[in-house]
Amino acid sequence: MKVILLQDVKSLGKKGEIVQAADAYARNQLIPKKMAVEATPKNMNDLKLQKKNDDKIAQENYEAAVALKNNLEKEDTIVEIKMKSGTGGKPFGSVSTKEIAQKTKEQLGLELDKKKMVTESLKSFGVHEVTIKLHPKVKAVLRVKVTEE
Questions:
Q1: What's the pTM?
Q2: pLDDT tens readout for residues 62-113
């Protein structure tokens, strides 16, 4: 019996695939547990429409990520963070990704996920570049200026 998988099934296939399953397995396990539906023409059409919608949403997310990248990488876009200095003019502590995300929201009005920032902790004054993963295919570079309070 041909079925359309509604979720990943070990040793059978991934969500959205049309697979051949034993009749008894499909009727007694997959369909009652809502892991699959029978591959009727109506269900096949629904799957096609769902995939088309998913592709459209993925494209919109990609375009939004590219627009955000262009906004972050403008020449005048710098996030400024002030830190206290310790002995010898060195910064006291370091700047975390949480602080960078918070200051970006305050200064630029942009929401960034601190978990998607790739950086070492910033432990010196000056301008640093922080890489942000906005999308699997899009990475942006945000300039962060650490100054003395």
A1: 0.68
A2: 999 999 888 888 877 888 988 888 777 788 888 888 888 899 889 888 888 8
| Amino acid in the structure at residue 66 | V
Q: Which domain holds residue 26?
A: 2-68
What are the tokens at 31?
């369909």
**For residue 83, which of 96, 67, 72, 69 has the smallest C-alpha distance?**
96
Give the domain CATH number at 8: 3.40.5.10
pLDDT tens for 106-136 read 988 888 888 888 887 788 888 899 899 989 9
* Number of domains forming the structure of the chain: 2
Task: List Cα–Cα distances, 147 to 79, 83, 105, 119, in angstroms.
Answer: 11, 6, 18, 18
- DSSP-derived letter for residue 90 is -
